[in-house]
Amino acid sequence: MIRLTLAFLLTVSCYPQATVAVQSPAVAQFIREMETDHGFGAQQLNDLFDRVRISKQVLAAISRPAEAKPWYEYRLIFVTPERTREGVRFWRKNAHSLRAAEERYGVAPEVVVAIIGVETFYGRHGGKYRVADALSTLAFYYPKRADFFRAELKQFLLMAREQRVDALELMGSYAGAMGIPQFIPSSFRHYAVDFNGDGRIDIWDDPEDAVGSVANYLRRHGWEPGRPVAVRARVNRSGYRHLLSDALKPAIPWSQITRSGLIPERNVAGDPLVTVVDLDLGKESEYWLGFNNFYAVTRYNHSALYAMAVYQLATAIRSEYLGS
To answer: Which of 109, 117, 170, 191 has the highest local Cβ count within 10 Å?
Structure first.
């Protein structure tokens, strides 16, 4: 990981404060595609890239994602008393929109609140990078995922044109995620909604649009109203190990779980499919069974650690909200 980071920094060290407009043939190809496929002017994009900066900080940050940490470290970042208390405050302040989102999309309020809490601490940390800089840097100077970020850069420019905003003014994360819910550009174009009906979609400063957009995203990714997210299980015997995998999508029948050496803390009606989540506590493991709603949360961030942090934070927020 360290050598990889150094390689990235050396790659851009030749271009201190450089723009990306004419540094790479890939940029010229990108401009041609945007011109041919989407009607952008070549001069318009050249002018844009003349003002876009390559960011060493972006390349360094993407090489050390939080999801690379073990669970016992990852959990301490997101499932905290302070984040729980602030989640309760956010719920109270936005109770109307959260209730409306639940009625429309069927997503539990505490899950929407927890996602916003994990992503940006309820809107406090929306990102310090210009989205155009972050996406351009990754599209043209991060070969490992260049295709993905090039596609997101296209989506970003289309979004900026549709929303009639200056592409150089929008701020976000090192990976180009934006606003209170940290939507990447393709997610914005597909799932962000004008939830308060004011004629524009604002996920940067409008919690109502953020709440509705998160709920819509989850429902469109298979959220099942009223169904469980995850259930903890304890080990009874060693027969469960063949069920462990890195798969996020549930594929194991509940009835098979109960015969395999994992004992769920509570029963669930029917025979739903689950995935077994193995959480590293340091000297031992903790096991959870993730249902389809758990998988829906991983569509937001493709990580079992992320989904578990959201679920546990949501559980803590709901408990404190109802008890207060």
So the answer is: 117
